[in-house]
Design goal:
The protein has 752 residues and is an alpha/beta fold. The chain is built from 21 helices and 26 strands. The strands form seven sheets. It has a six-stranded mixed beta sheet, sandwiched between helices. The chain has a five-stranded parallel beta sheet with strand order 4-3-2-1-10. The relative contact order is 0.11. InterPro entries: Cellulose_Degrad_GH3, Fn3-like, GH, Glyco_hydro_3_C, Glyco_hydro_3_C_sf, Glyco_hydro_3_N, Glyco_hydro_3_N_sf, Ig-like_fold. It comes from Actinacidiphila bryophytorum. GO terms for molecular function: beta-glucosidase activity.
Length: 752
């Protein structure tokens, strides 16, 4: 095989910003940067052959153009680039988890992307640029040296939309610096089953919290002032977090009422924030694969919500309609079902020729119309023009390292700080007393930066073996933060930890779970491992104070490890996680994180979420009975809600409810107070949860300070699907009394 362009030689061709060349003597409108986008799209579309249009609807993995064109990586191979980008005119390329350059640096990433882009532009008949995709879900997490933010489940516990937006913008700047213009983030699914392997990729169990933070991430990603524009992707539409048995991608069955009232709102909030693209749920809902659901992709997304952007499948999901779901007799029929449902681009990463042949055959059979193809290609080209790819397809690779490595570590530390949730602080064991002379740090996760970051970090399943992620572990963070005169001992084994703890003033034991992703991260019994439970139990038996720090992507049943004086949920805090844990332990930061997901008492209660509906059920834990409830979290100060007042005692069903909430810091140090407002109804024709989050904010309060915050509740947050079991009607706000509660205070508003 002959190598086309090495990473070194490719860098020389991108020193200056390039423009897409026009056809000689034609001066087409699509190459005119001053022409309106719709004019440019129409002009380009009419010049394209059917084969070129079909190619635009395909996304191919970069590994199909490198080395042996399988998974070898390395330099590009001309014959394979020609097959993908010219013969099959693929419109998009992606790097899935771990599919990067052979030497993983930001500069090499930029050079790799530039090389693909240059080949596509120079060699395609109409010089159409590709759009390059990557899953940058917690920072530019595929790139070694990039700052790794907390996973979304931790960001959810910040309850801080502005912080999430800032993290999204930081990520987009790093993504753009490496030449990439399409980010497959944020995840707007909600997590309600701790067994599910992608639990940590969500912002939590509540639709409003998840939707608000996902919409903030969209604004951050698409509003960043970077080297180029980046498109955000709302995923995985819809209902991906509801697998029937808790395992990833297992079909789920949900009522239309539950789908409309609970599962769809978080996606809608993020889409309404202006997201350019949506990725489809890999699973099936109510017996229909989401990738072939006209109801989801057209009736809801296009017709009801008015979405104009690009809908892309997840990994190989069009082919799965034939090979896994068996709803299509052959591949052309599978392609037709997906495209007619509303899919614009197929992530078919391995077989550009197969996609081209499949869709062309579907057209020849009369299964898909050219008009339908033109719709999708119009959306794809519109996104490319909006991103400026026809004018600025390349980046300066020489600047990538300086723009990515170590960027925004202070912001990542703030995010990790705010995501920490203090759940137990018996006897005020925290913050660590100034008189503390010896601290023992134990547990297999105390000095493990790779598992601290979680899956989707450098590699798909987490940091690959033999690669060390830059960052600070919990042990390192504690050693750096410990005051002069305090000795920090890192235990070398469980026996050493127990022996050292006997004369220590405090033991910090760091427990958790191994990094993994998707199905490999499924956990049928989401609990702390037996050896870790035994270690914590032995440390408790020493009679000395113990603080447990949990590094995990989901709440874990603690078993024998429960009951230590301190309990800190650190989630998967990223490269600055060690500093963040130490910030809270030593009191540099007053913890403000509040649980974005309910913490179960024992295994067997999945799914678990605070909006469990009432019933005639009885027996231990058959209702909502969590060890730590949704929204739980402690601080080093105390807060109170002093009053809740509505602007009107009676409103119409189409009115927004305005609430003024008086809050106070009743303690002796400043802190950030999360102020959630829940709604309940004394009676309702349709079952209503005892509490439903309808508004929230986060406010900084000095010691002894009081203030009033104003929160609004639009009618959509009160709307439910009326009627009988079939749930066939549109959402409505029912008449009656609604009780709005914050803390111990409440007010009633009647909807007339």
């Amino acid at each position: 095989m002959r190598s086309l362009l090495t990473l070194a030689t490719a860098a020389a061709c991108v020193a200056a910003v390039a423009s897409v060349p026009a056809q000689a003597g034609d001066n087409p409108s699509y190459t005119n940067p001053k022409a309106p986008v719709d004019v440019r799209v129409k002009d380009l579309l009419k010049r394209m052959t059917l084969e070129e249009k079909i190619g635009q609807m395909d996304q191919i993995s970069v590994v199909r153009m490198q080395g042996d064109c399988e998974w070898s990586g390395g330099a590009y191979t001309e014959s394979c680039m020609k097959s993908v980008l010219v013969d099959n005119a693929a419109g998009s390329v992606l790097s899935g988890g771990g599919a990067g350059p052979s030497v993983n640096t930001p500069q090499n990433w930029a050079t790799m992307v530039n090389t693909v882009q240059k080949y596509a532009i120079d060699n395609s008949r109409l010089h159409i640029p590709i759009i390059y995709g990557v899953d940058a879900v917690h920072g530019h997490n595929n790139v070694l040296g990039a700052t790794i933010f907390p996973q979304e489940i931790g960001m959810g516990s910040t309850w801080d939309p502005q912080l999430v937006q800032d993290a999204g913008a930081s990520t987009a700047k790093s993504v753009a610096a490496t030449g990439i213009d399409w980010n497959f983030a944020p995840v707007a699914d909600i997590a309600r089953d701790q067994r599910w392997g992608r639990y940590y990729e969500t912002y939590g169990e509540d639709p409003l919290l998840s939707g608000t933070l996902a919409s903030a991430a969209v604004r951050g990603i698409q509003g960043a002032d970077g080297a180029k524009d980046v498109a955000a992707t709302v995923k995985h539409f819809a209902g991906y977090g509801e697998p029937g048995n808790g395992h990833d991608r297992v079909p789920g069955d949900v009522s239309i009422r539950y789908l409309q009232d609970t599962l769809l709102p978080s996606y809608k909030q993020a889409i309404d924030a202006g997201a350019m693209s949506v990725m489809v749920n890999s699973g099936a809902v109510n017996g229909i694969p989401a990738t072939s659901s006209h109801y989801l992709l057209t009736d809801v997304l296009r017709d009801r919500w008015g979405f104009k952007g690009v809908v892309v499948s997840d990994w190989q999901d069009v082919r799965a309609l034939q090979t896994s779901y068996h709803i299509a007799a052959d591949y052309p029929e599978a392609v037709a079902k997906a495209v007619n449902a509303g899919l614009d681009m197929a992530m078919e990463p391995y077989d550009a020729q197969g996609w081209s042949d499949g869709l062309k055959t579907a057209v020849q059979r009369g299964l898909v119309s050219v008009k339908r193809i033109d719709q999708s290609v119009t959306r794809i080209l519109t996104m490319k023009f909006r991103l400026g790819l026809f004018e600025h397809p390349y980046v300066d690779a020489a600047k990538a390292d300086s723009r990515v490595i170590g960027a925004d570590t202070a912001l990542a530390r703030q995010a990790a700080d705010e995501s920490q949730v203090l759940l137990r602080n018996d006897g005020n064991v925290l913050p660590v007393a100034a008189s503390t002379k010896k601290i023992v740090v134990a547990g297999s996760y105390a000095d493990d930066i790779n598992d601290q970051a979680g899956g989707w970090t450098v590699g798909w399943q987490g940091v690959p073996a033999g690669v060390q992620l830059p960052g600070t572990t919990v042990l390192q963070g504690i050693k750096e933060a410990a005051p002069s005169g305090t000795t920090v001992v890192g235990a070398t084994s469980a026996d050493d930890a127990v022996a050292q703890a006997k004369d220590a003033d405090l033991t910090v034991v760091v427990v958790g779970e191994k990094a993994a992703a998707e199905g490999s991260a499924d956990s049928p019994r989401p609990e702390l491992s037996a050896d870790q439970q035994a270690l914590v139990k032995s440390l408790k038996a020493t009679g000395k104070p113990v603080v447990t720090v949990v590094i995990a992507g989901r709440p874990l049943v603690l078993g024998d490890a429960d009951g230590t004086q301190g309990l800190l949920m650190a989630w998967l805090p990223g490269s600055e996680g060690g500093h963040a844990v130490a910030d809270v332990l030593f009191g540099k930061v007053n913890p403000s994180g509040r649980l974005s997901a309910s913490w179960p008492k024992d295994v067997g209660n999945e799914p678990l979420y605070y909006q469990q509906l009432p019933g005639t059920n009885s027996g231990p834990e058959s209702g909502y009975d969590a060890a730590y409830r949704f929204g739980a979290g402690l601080s080093y100060t105390t807060y109170s809600v002093d009053s809740v007042k509505a602007s009107a005692a009676s409103v119409r069903s189409r009115d927004t409810v305005s609430l003024k909430v008086g809050v106070s810091n009743t303690g002796d140090r400043a802190g950030d107070m999360v102020v959630p407002v829940y709604v309940s109804q004394a009676s309702s024709d349709v079952l209503a949860p005892p509490a439903k989050l309808v508004a929230f904010t986060k406010v900084h309060l000095g010691a002894g300070q009081s203030t009033t915050v104003t929160l609004t509740v639009p009618p959509s947050r009160l709307a439910v699907t009326p009627g009988d079991i079939d749930g066939s009607g549109p959402q409505q706000v029912a008449r009656g009394a609604y009780v709005f509660t914050a803390g111990a205070q409440s007010t009633t508003v009647t909807v007339r």
